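Notes to self, Purine-cytosine permease:
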Amino acid sequence: MSVEHPWPSPGRRPTARSALSAAAHAVERRSVDWVPHEERHGRVSDLGSMWFASNVNLTAMATGVTALSVGAPLAWTMVASTLGSLFGTFFMAVHSAQGPHLGLPQLVQSRPQFGYLGASLTVWVFALVNYLAYNTSDAILAGSAVHGVFGVPTTVGYLASAVVASVVAFFGHDWIHRVNRWLTWPMIALLVVLSVAAATNEAVPPLTLAGFEPAPVMTVFVITAGFQLGWAPYVSDYSRYLASDVPARSAFWWTYLPSALSAVWVFVLGAAMAAASPGAEPVTAFAAAADTLADGFGRVAIAALLLGLLSVMSVNQYGGALTMIAIRDSFRPVRPTRRARALAVGAMFAVVWLVSHTVGAERFTAFYGNILIFLAYLFTPWTAVNLVDYFLVRRGCYVISAIFDPDGVYGRWGWRGNAAYLLGLAAMVPFMVTTPYTGPAAALLGGVDCSVLVGLPISGGAYWVLTRSLDLERERRLARDEGVLDPR
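result:
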């Protein structure tokens, strides 16, 4: 997206027409297509505010509530949340490092591994479920928060929140970054104050490392790792506009450190505040904890966390819209226009509204806990295949035009990627622990869920072996002839 001045030249007063023109220029015009080098802009440090602020909201903090509900003591819930966050954020941040070099949305990068059609029928469908599930959780909490702060019905609260988020999502990449920059420092101040409230709250149980049980502790690890891994399908959507010469190491650290810090902070806070109000809904527990610091502060804290939630809702609306467009494009070419993205954002709005009403606030914790675990299962083998392909197999050398060509060098069906994905997922099944199912291997381990630790090496290793037969020299030659990507 080219950077243009929002107003006419100095000396000329803005007119209604010029204001509309400025608004039109502010709307991102690209969607799932490649970002040309001349349109790259922004600083790598922008990733810091993007990924710190994205975790400071009601849904992320409710992850701590969900983690505590698993049954581990508070201290062990905090330990497992910290380790899970650090683990899941590593893979998320590595994906972020792909964006500047490739200039593509994250999921479009899956076509070389899974094929032009194969990616849409496997990875992208799961990604769409990811967006819908998280945005449903956001919607439920947004309705509860608006009801608590302003006293309006929860349905009205969701609709108002979703409208705001949809507008930001329609304006696109730059505005999502801008909103997160505005939120970063106020959110840091809010977390500091909430930390003081939690530390001085006598209702929070004392921390002790007694009562360790491996099964619930490992489930907490999977939940928090899954939350952070849930960013992976769209993390490089927000680094793809950076200049192609931005070092991968810089993109990694500006994503990893801020995101891991905010994730650990909000998960631990969420668990502590939930422990002080056993059985309460997340919004109620957070407000009660904040009120212990000063009467009425709970409403202020919920309002601030609601702003963060509106921001992350826009991120999910934007990513879901890109995924819908990409799936449609795999079967019939779609022009990546503003109109296409507006229609996709509207579709996300409608579907999430229907699903959130079906789930309801009273079933939020059970619903949210299950989606975190299942999405961790679905995206573990994908992240292994995608990263092994980028860093070990093709080493960042791709033919951009072929990614958008069903008859290109990557083909319609990437059997290697799909086979490795399914093999990794199958290997995980015996180690899974869910409400309706516990795998035989997990049962032998006393209910310990180590499926993620199994799926990563098996999927990645299988893909690496299967790609030994690829004609990589031909692909490199085509990439050099195309001259789009800088050689690596």
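- The chain has one domain: 64-207+228-482.
- Confidence is low (pLDDT under 50) at residues 1-14, 16-22.
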